[in-house]
Amino acid sequence: MYRFFVQPQVNAETQKLAGYELLLRSSCHDYWVTPTDFTAVPMDQQVLLSYQEITSILKDHRDNPEISLNLNREQFTDRRTIGHLIHLKKSVKNLNLIVELTEAPSLEELHRYVALYRSFDIKLSLDDVGTDNPWSQAVQDVLPFMDSIKFAMQNFRFQHRQGEMMQSLNFWRKIADNYQLGFTLEGIEDKGDVKLAQEYNVKLAQGYYYSKPVPYAAV
């Protein structure tokens, strides 16, 4: 059994809700866990599950918050997946949809598919810059096609790389400015992190300080 949990994203300056990231979870022995293989869940099923969550969110929030979904490289380049996302975009009026890419596509793949996403106003964000997506020629090729990037502080903490975090954050904040990209800071755990997000003038802040991923009904 699968369902989407949600984690709020807030405007770093105003601290008001700005959006939600949908995070797929599977039921295992009465617990909800992160699936080991996201492609094991057919995309039409994921879109159906996300539709249920998105319509509930937009019913409660008339200010049209951003909704983020994660895709890996295989899903991003799959024509059926693109079709399902286009169907979702057309089915939900005024849906402000952002695809967070967990892996950087090749330049050839971007040239082939990005126009399909653009034509239906589906925004693109590169996830986990500095850790899962470190600086490389492949990432540099991707950035002109992105609308935003996301920096995950919790990845540095989990990998015991806290000593590298601030230098990397400085670097990626400058990259976002150079490429005119929105910047999301994830891993906000306390008031000090909130202040850090404001000092770095990030667009969105996300983390356990606001909420762990939970079923939307529990938000």
Helix content: 25-40%
Number of helices: 8
What Rg, in angstroms, do the CA atoms define? Answer: 17 Å
Average pLDDT, to the nearest integer?
95
Shape: globular
First-last Cα distance: 21 Å
What proportion of the residues form beta strands (DSSP E)? 15-25%
Largest sheet: 8 strands, mixed, barrel
Keywords:
globular, 8-stranded mixed beta barrel, 8 helices, 219 residues, alpha/beta, 39% helix
Overview of the molecule:
This protein is α/β, with parallel strands linked by helices and 219 residues long. 39% of the residues lie in helices and 24% in strands. It has eight helices and nine strands. α1 packs parallel to α3. It starts with a strand and ends in a 13-residue tail after the last strand. The mean pLDDT is 95.
Brief overview, please?
The chain has helices spanning 43-60, 73-76, 79-91, 107-119, 137-142, 153-158, 162-178, 191-199, and strands at residues 2-11, 17-28, 31-33, 66-71, 97-101, 123-126, 148-152, 182-186, 204-206. The longest helix has 18 residues, at 43-60.
Describe how the helices and strands are arranged.
Blueprint lengths: L1 E10 L5 E12 L2 E3 L9 H18 L5 E6 L1 H4 L2 H13 L5 E5 L5 H13 L3 E4 L10 H6 L5 E5 H6 L3 H17 L3 E5 L4 H9 L4 E3 L13
Parallel strand pairs: 2-4, 4-5, 5-6, 6-7, 7-8, 8-9
Antiparallel strand pairs: 1-2, 1-9, 2-3
Helix pairs in contact: 1-3
